[in-house]
Structures are given as structure tokens and as C-alpha cells.
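User:
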Amino acid sequence: MATHARPASLPSRPPEGRRVPELDPALVGQWQAGGGELIDLFAQARQRLGGVAAFRLGPRPTVLVTDPPAVQHVLALHPDRYVKRSHRARLLIGDGVLAATGEAWQRQRRLLQSQFTGRGMRRYEQRITGAARTAAARWAAYARSGEVLDVGDEMRRFALDTIWRSLTGHPLDPATARELAAVPAVVAALPSLPADGAAARGAVAAELARIDAVASHAVAAARDGRAGPDGPGLLHVLLEAAGTRPEYTDRLIRDELVTLLVAGHETTATTLTWLYLLLDRNPQAREQALAAGAEGSPERRQAVQALVHETLRFYPSAWILPRCAAEDDVLAGYRIEAGTDVLVCPYLTHRDPGLWEDPGRFDPGRFTTPGRRPAHPGSYLPFGIGPRACLGLQFALRESTVLLEHLLPAHTPCFRSTPAKAAYSIIVRPDGPTPATLGG
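Assistant: Predicted structure:
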């Protein structure tokens, strides 16, 4: 059979997909000159160019993704094409599951997955309730004395107590709490640390040493069989894995322990702090949640969970999800070249007026009334979606709900001042203290 070469006059096949629309460099320059937040640049790109947009801060464009189908494409449908690179918190969490990639990540996630769903979650009910009761007793004492408390500090104390009980079986003692204050200190410092790894580590060496000492002590206690009053915890699961899986070295156990500490308390504490700040501006939402049903009823629990969900819509735990295109792809009709940095931004998706009615209004009813929230899975993703979605989603929702069921009926914080803005780092947190006294 004869073969025929393509005539030289025929054009070669054009590359698939259109070019991603790119924000005018002059607008980027104006943003840089004004010293704006990164979210301001993102919002401008989204508003002017749509749900798949590009901007250029270096030699290559970065692609911002906020459109729900495109979000789902990147995170859930094709996670092998859009991969994580080095995690910003690797300095702190090492090779823990948040930073791991490839087969190592799959093994680590598989081990932990069962601990945070279904039957695994029931193991932590008593620990969550114990931490909530301790916080409620502390708030009752504040209310009696009139003492000023910091709501953010209180939320961190509760969330750290909860994850510490879940990891070790022990309530959080004051000495450990003081040492673990180094964790949020490192998290807050990460965005401003030097780019050089050795210099960055040196800048927070004292804090890392404190964290390592706490982790080492906890591992030693678990190895010695010193289980807490609530029995063995997640740390024992990691130690059991070390008996059959050589990759679970002392270093990886430390990294997983610190990862769970970071992920298990910083995001929850921040969400609860935002919730109380939002309730301060929207007091009717508290009254509506308490009026939804009697104490302990499914109706009240659903209403309290809606408060959490609406807070997470405003301030998602993962406000930005960085990925890198591992291969050429077409995303929502646009050409994405291998090596392109892709930023999924739940923060902007959750505030899109094309998806959410009156998105600037705090309205927990979106999550209790059928048809009030967008149906597409890429529209609401405070913990991400797809295979790399946060392992602790159910844990975080459960501990937040249990604490609020204890605190909301009894106390209303009266803030003496509130932060004027948000700080955008690994998480979106209130940029300042939250001092308050407690009213009934």
C-alpha cells in the first residue's frame, strides 16, 4: 500500500484551546505600587476576565481558577494533571501528609483516612466533648468574674486541647499548651520568612526546637504505653504502623504528629473566631439558631452547623489551593501548558454573585433551606474537593458544632475591639486581637 506525505502547503494542526485571558500588566503594576493584598489582585482578575484568568508577576503567567466546573476539573477530575509542589509549611510539617506527594502521600493518606470517617470518628466523640466542657467551664468563670478574654486565644486553646486529646488520649496541660504556642507563631511567620531554606529555618529555630521537644516527649510516652484517660490516640496508630512499615521512621512520625497538630487546630480555631466576629455583626443569626429547636435536638444541631458552614463560605479553611500543571491540558476551553502555576481560589468562588445570592450577607439559611446554595460541587469547597480534600473535614465540623452547642446558649461575647481587616497567609485570619467580656 502506498503512503502519502502531508502536502507541504497544508498547515500543521493548531494547538487545542484558546489562550487564557491575561490581566493588563499596567493594572498589575498599579496593584504592586499600591501595596495591595494578593487577594485584591485575584479579585480584579476574576472581575475583569472571568473564572479562568491569568496574571503575570514573573516571566510566566499564573492562572487563577474560580469557575466551579474548572475548579472541579483541576481538583477532582484530573488531580494527576494538576499536582502539588512543595508545601509552604514544609519547614514546619516536613514530610507529613499535607506536604507529601506521589506514592508516599497515597500511603500516608490511606493510613489516616479511616480515622476521620464513620466508625473512626466515633472514637473521638468523648474527647471532643471533654474539651468542649472544659472550655465551657472556663467561659462560665470568665462570665462570673467579668475578666477580659481574647476570643481567638480561647478558640485556639479549645481546638488544641481537642486535637491533643485525640492524638495522645491526654487533656492538654498548661505546660504543653505554652510550648505549643510555637506552632501558630511559626505558621504566622511563614509568609515573611527568607526564601533560602537554611535561613528560614534559622529564623524560627527556637520555635521549631520547642515543637520538636513536645513531639519527642509525646512519642516516648506513647511508646512506653502511657495511654491517657481516654485511651490510645492517633499517635498510637502511627506507632503501630512503624512496626510493619519501614517508611514510618521517627522523623516521619514526628512530621505526621506536627501536621495533625497544625491542621487539627489552627484552621478550626480561626473559623470559630471568625464565626464569633460575624455573630457580633449579625446577632439575629445566633437567636435564629437557638430557636431552631430544643437543646440537643437535630434541628438545633443543623442550625448550628449552618452557622459554621456560612462562616466557612466567608473564610474557607483553604482560601487558596496552589497546583502546577504536570502536562499540557485544556481547561474550560483554554490552553494550559505544562509547568503553569494554577491557583484555585475558594475564597472568591464563595463570594461570586453569579453563584450566591447577595454573597456579602451572612445568611446561614443558605445551608438549611433546600435550593438556596449552588448545586455544583465546585461552588463550595472550604476544605477542597477531590482526593486531596482535607482529611479532617468531619472532625472539624463535629468539634465546632459541639463547642457551639455548649457556648452559644450561655454566653454572648461583647467585643471591646475587633480587627479592622483580615490577614491572608496560609489561612485567612483576623489581623489583630479579639478582646471581649461575656454576657448572658
